[in-house]
Amino acid sequence: MLARHVLPALAGALLCHAALAIPTTIDSNHVTVDFDPDTFTFGIDQYDYGWTTYLDPNSVGYSASSNGVLLDFGSQFSLFDYAINESDPLLPVHAFFDSTFSFTAKPGHKIVGYTVDFIGSYNTEYPGGVGMAVDAVGWTGFSYGSGSFVQQLQYNDPTTPALRGYAEAQGSIDWTEVQVGTEIVQIGTDWQEDPFCVGQPDCPLIEVPIYGEVPVYMWQADLGGADLYLQRIAFNAITTPVPEPATAALLLAGGGLVGWARRRKARADHARG
Fold first, then answer.
1. Looking at residue 10, what is its pLDDT?
2. Does the model's pTM come out above 0.85?
3. What are the b/e assignments for 224-255, b being 16+ CB within 10 Å?
4. Rounded distance, CA 150 to CA 163, Å?
5. Which phi and psi angles does 97 have, rounded to 5°?
6. Could you tell me the pLDDT band of residue 178, with boundaries at 50, 70 and 90?
7. Do residues 171 and 225 make contact, with C-beta atoms less than 8 angstroms apart?
8. Rounded-to-integer distance, Cα 124 and Cα 222, Å
9. Could you give the angle at the alpha carbon of 182 between the alpha carbons of 179 and 187, nearest 5°?
10. Nearest to 168 by CA among 88, 242, 90
């Protein structure tokens, strides 16, 4: 009796998991893109607090971009890092992504490379900075100011790279020495007649201090901050047109006919000459 109820439920759970694991295909401009979100990993390392938050890959939006796939994280990749709130101001807030896509060129095109576009906004307060990177491709970022951005990295190889990399926001500390006032201190000594016998014969010389006003400095900390909102990543193929096999055959045949006609004309001209 128990098996009669448990086995259908287990089968239903397995079917549900299998349905989630079915790869997705996106039809873009000159390519198709295949992927399985259940194999992806997205997360944020809060180094200062010692924990990692993972994003559900199926909560990310996947749609066709100009020639590939667009990942939309919404507000999930929002990174904030302020030196004033940190135990160690040299540790950033670190987001990471690891996903694999399979690109296939449509007939008439071939893939010669890829671009990765980071899309979002940022705000930094000196000394702070934000940045994004893709493994084996490169790094891009901002160390001052604020605004929206579309930052592109390019991979010049037809082999599809894994979309694997990270983004960071870091508020750091810069120490500056500043003057906070002045004070009277001894700056030297001088030999003068003993004030008790000034002007008298054999009055001894005594060493007296000389005082002066000098500036007083202290170290002041500039506490930096950085916000990074990585909203979307566009992963696109760079394609070039190639002739279809039938078209290539026609071009070859046409070239052969043109060559044959030229040779025939040359022989006729030679015979008349």
1. 44
2. no
3. bbbbbbbbbbbbbbbbeeeeeeeeeeeeeeee
4. 17
5. -140, 140
6. confident
7. yes
8. 13
9. 115
10. 90
